[in-house]
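Morning F.,

Quick status update on the modeling queue. The single chain you submitted on Monday has been processed. Sequence for confirmation:
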Amino acid sequence: MKNIILGITGSIAAYKSADIANKLVGKNYNVHAVMTKSGVAFITPLTLQTLTKNRVFVDVLQEDNPKQIVHIDLPQSADVMLIAPATANIIAKIATGIADDMLSSMVLATPNETPKIIAPAMNTKMYENIATQENLKTLKNRGWLIIEPRVARLACDYVGKGALATVNTIVDTIEALNL
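Structure tokens below.
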């Protein structure tokens, strides 16, 4: 069984992470959800724990087992690092090497050869901002696979590019890796 770390950040699209997790589990992947604190504001860890049958990680300082350092150990066994949805904030943190929460710490601890996928979801203006675009270019240059957001009516009532890619597109991208 292949291990996937599913990073979930503070986007309204976080509710779709439950469907992503459920579909991946249905395809026999072992999914470990890691949430930012702002992600928890949109969907509960209990939802993801119920779907994945794995503990959900939020706090980098929550180390229950003294023989394990989760933010270092879990990424070593990951076959894929997937962040969906990915906010402009987490994209900027990853691009600049900031590790100030559980998810960004796990990203830095993920081996370079492990496939890394990011699916942005944010307001059109935030997505189009030169800083976000340069950060995405940096990630792409480092080997990250970027799943482009869709053009749709966003939660803020803007119509434009920034909606999370469809759940099927994200799951199909994982499947295409032929792990």
